[in-house]
Every structure is written in structure tokens, then in C-alpha cells.
């Protein structure tokens, strides 16, 4: 049950392979926030279908993401994990926001859409995706939205839409705040430190999936691109690859970057990578031990229970919105 603590809401799409970038940038923040806040973590299946999905794979991915949340440390006794499509008010509120506050000019500014769409004849849903995300956040009267760097523009848009609605129809939505990590908000690809680590990367050398075999992860680290020179130093401009590996090392081992720089002062890239490979492999082993112990049935029950528990509140919020726009008689 929700108590009087502030509300945290975030979500991940059940598509592609969830990777250590998602863990470091988003999930690791969630774990910390659970201690202080009411936390709601969504599996955003309606966002996933903005691009083509194989239905059989999509349902497996939904279960997989829920297991990853739990094995990462989301406490289902305290926090909620639910599937977006189980609460239809998300889609309903998105439609209302589409009409009452979102404008074409807002959406035309979204850089992620431009990157994803390119010149292709993509779905209308992909274009409208940030409005659905705003609906997710506003429907749960969210205070804080912890995400990685690529979602900053979307959270800012959510704030704009909420304020615009409030201005026109009177105080309705709480204005959420973005929460982003100082380090780790954008983990870069292992094969190219100039592009982000991404679930939809064509080459698996780009990322370490949370479900990669530890031996595979070791290989990926050992083959990761490095910079010229041999110094192990955090310098995003001149040493983007080593800086990225340092961030991963630091956040998975709980040691500061400054401390790591000191340890590796007289060592070479290969020593550094071997140790990092070990850290990543241990992290995955511990994670996967928990992951493999969670049954599909257990996950299905958790998703169902959370949606049931959250629904009464989302009903109230949507009812208020409907009254404001004059469709509730
Ligand atoms: P997505 O993979 O787009 O569903 O993203 C899920 C969450 O992970 C969002 O909060 C993203 O901002 C975050 N995220 C995705 N890729 C990265 C990355 N390479 N580094 C850090 N955070 C990321
Ligand atoms: N769009 C986000 C992503 O791809 C996922 C998401 C959907 C989300 N709804 C959200 C994140 C609400 C935070 C809050 O990463």
C-alpha cells in the first residue's frame, strides 16, 4: 500500500536485452530510493510496441524485465512492479494529454524520436511516445522520476504538459522532478565510446546484458575499445573509452573513480581490464543466482497484485482529469 512518503515512478521497455547501462543509469538509483519513498516501477509494454515486436517474444520479455527488477533488489514487499497495459488509465490519460496539452511543436523537438525514426515511415505511436510517458508519470502523482540521461528531455516535456494543463484547467497534476546520477547516467558502448550502450544495438559487443554468461562478459570487457596512450585516467574528452570503463568499474564495485585512478597509476590497460572483467563477472554471477530462482508464476502474481493495488488511485486521478475537461457527467 502507498503510505504518505513521496512517490517515485520509473519504467523500462520490455524489448531488447537489458544491460548494465540500464542497471547503472536507472535501476541502481531505484534500489536506493526504495528506502525513503513509495516506489512504483513499470514495465512499459505499450512503449515497446511503438516499434515492431514479435508477440511471443514480447510476453517473455515482460516476465524477464520483472525478474531483472526483482533480482536487482527491488523489494516487492514494499515497492510496486506492474505492467503498463494492466492499468488502461495510462493509455486513456495519454489520449487526453494528446488533445489537451501536447502540441506538435513540442514533439517535433524530441531528439530521441528523430534518432529512432530517421527517414523511415515509423508508427504514430513512436512519435507520441513521450506523451504516453508523461501520462505514466502524472497518473501516479509522481514526485521523482529517476532515469538515465536519454530520458531527460522526455521528463522535461512531462513537466511542460502538466503545467500547461494546470494553467488551462486549474490545479490538477503534481509537477514531477527529474532524478539523474552524476556518474553513470549515460554508459557508452564497449565497442564505441561515442555512442551509448543500447538495448537495440546491432552488435552484442556494444553491451553487457544482465543475462549474459559471466564468461561472455569477461570476453566483452577484454575486447572493449580503449584509447591511445596507456594511462588509466578519467578524462571524458581525451579518454572516452577508459573513462567509460572507469565509471562502470566504480559503480559496480562501490569505489570512487579517484581511488581507482590511484590503484592503477603504474598499471596498464590489460591489468585494468582483467580486474574490471572480474568485477563485472562477479556482479553478474550474484545477480543471476537470484534471477534464476524467480519463477514465472511468482512474477505473474506480483504483476497482478501490484496493478490491483494501484488501480484505485489511478481511477481517482483520471476521474479528476475527466471532470476538469468536462467529460464526466
Ligand atoms: P530503455 O532501455 O530505453 O528502456 O531505458 C531504460 C532506462 O535505462 C532509462 O531510464 C534510460 O535512461 C536508462 N538507460 C538506457 N540506456 C542507458 C545507458 N547507456 N546508460 C545509462 N542509462 C541508460
Ligand atoms: N521512455 C522510457 C525509456 O525508454 C521508459 C518509460 C516509460 C519511463 N514511461 C516512463 C521512464 C515513465 C520513467 C517514467 O527508457
Structural commentary:
- Strand 4 (144-146), helix 8 and strand 5 (177-179) form a beta-alpha-beta unit.
- A three-stranded parallel β-sheet has the order 1-2-3. It has a two-stranded parallel sheet with strand order 4-5.
- 53% of the residues lie in helices and 7% in strands.
- Helix 3 (55-72) crosses helix 12 (269-291).
- By secondary structure, it is mainly α.
- The protein has 13 helices and five strands.
- It is globular, with a radius of gyration of 21 Å.
- The protein has two domains: 7-180 and 299-325, Rossmann fold (3-Layer(aba) Sandwich), CATH 3.40.50.620; 204-291, Tyrosyl-Transfer RNA Synthetase.
- Residues 9-13, 44, 47, 133, 136-137, 145, 147, 151, 154 line the site of tryptophan.
Ligand inventory: adenosine monophosphate, tryptophan
Radius of gyration: 21 Å
Which residues sit in consecutive blocks of at least 5 with pLDDT less than 50? none
Q: Mind telling me which CATH architecture of the largest domain this is?
A: 3-Layer(aba) Sandwich
- Give the total of beta strands: 5
Helicity, as a percent range: 40-55%
Strand content: 5-15%
> Per CATH, what is the topology of the largest domain?
Rossmann fold
In order across it, which strands form the biggest sheet? 1-2-3
Taking the alpha carbons of the first and last residues, their distance comes to 30 Å
The coarse silhouette is globular
Broad CATH class of the largest domain = Alpha Beta
Q: What can be said about the biggest beta sheet?
A: 3 strands, parallel
Q: What is the string of SSEs from the N terminus onward?
A: EHEHHEHHHHEHEHHHHH
CATH H-tier superfamily of the largest domain: HUPs
Average of the residue pLDDT scores: 96
Tally of structural domains:
2
Multimer state: single chain
Count of helical regions: 13
Amino acid at each position: 500500500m502507498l503510505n504518505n512518503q513521496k512517490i517515485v515512478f520509473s519504467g523500462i521497455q520490455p524489448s531488447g536485452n537489458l544491460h548494465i547501462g540500464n542497471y547503472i543509469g536507472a535501476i541502481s538509483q531505484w534500489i536506493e530510493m526504495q528506502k525513503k519513498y513509495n516506489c512504483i516501477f513499470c514495465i512499459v509494454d505499450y512503449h515497446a510496441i511503438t516499434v515492431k515486436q514479435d508477440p511471443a517474444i514480447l510476453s517473455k520479455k515482460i516476465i524477464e524485465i520483472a525478474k531483472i527488477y526483482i533480482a536487482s533488489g527491488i523489494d516487492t514487499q514494499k515497492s510496486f512492479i506492474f505492467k503498463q497495459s494492466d492499468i488502461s488509465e495510462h493509455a486513456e490519460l495519454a489520449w487526453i494529454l494528446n488533445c489537451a496539452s501536447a502540441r506538435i511543436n513540442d514533439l517535433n523537438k524530441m531528439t530521441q524520436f528523430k534518432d529512432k525514426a530517421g527517414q523511415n515511415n515509423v508508427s504514430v505511436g513512436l512519435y507520441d511516445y513521450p506523451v504516453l510517458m508523461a501520462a505514466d508519470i502524472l497518473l501516479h502523482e509522481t514526485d521523482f522520476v529517476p532515469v538515465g540521461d536519454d530520458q531527460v528531455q522526455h521528463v522535461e516535456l512531462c513537466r511542460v504538459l502538466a503545467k500547461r494543463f494546470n494553467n488551462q484547467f486549474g490545479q490538477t497534476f503534481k509537477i514531477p522532478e527529474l532524478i539523474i546520477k552524476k556518474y553513470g547516467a549515460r554508459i557508452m558502448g564497449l565497442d564505441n565510446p561515442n555512442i551509448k550502450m543500447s538495448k537495440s544495438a546491432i552488435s552484442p559487443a556494444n553491451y553487457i546484458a544482465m543475462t549474459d554468461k559471466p564468461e561472455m562478459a569477461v570476453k566483452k570487457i577484454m575486447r572493449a575499445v580503449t584509447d591511445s596512450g596507456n594511462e588509466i585516467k578519467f578524462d571524458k574528452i581525451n579518454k572516452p573509452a577508459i573513462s567509460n570503463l572507469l565509471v562502470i568499474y566504480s559503480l559496480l564495485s562501490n569505489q570512487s573513480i579517484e581511488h581507482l585512478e590511484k590503484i592503477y597509476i603504474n598499471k596498464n590497460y590489460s591489468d585494468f581490464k582483467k580486474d574490471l572483467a572480474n568485477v563485472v563477472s562477479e556482479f553478474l554471477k550474484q545477480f543471476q543466482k537470484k534471477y534464476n530462482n524467480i519463477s514465472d508464476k511468482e512474477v505473474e502474481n506480483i504483476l497482478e497484485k501490484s496493478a490491483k493495488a494501484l488501480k484505485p488511485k489511478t481511477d481517482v486521478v483520471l476521474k479528476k482529469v475527466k471532470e476538469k475537461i468536462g467529460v464526466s457527467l
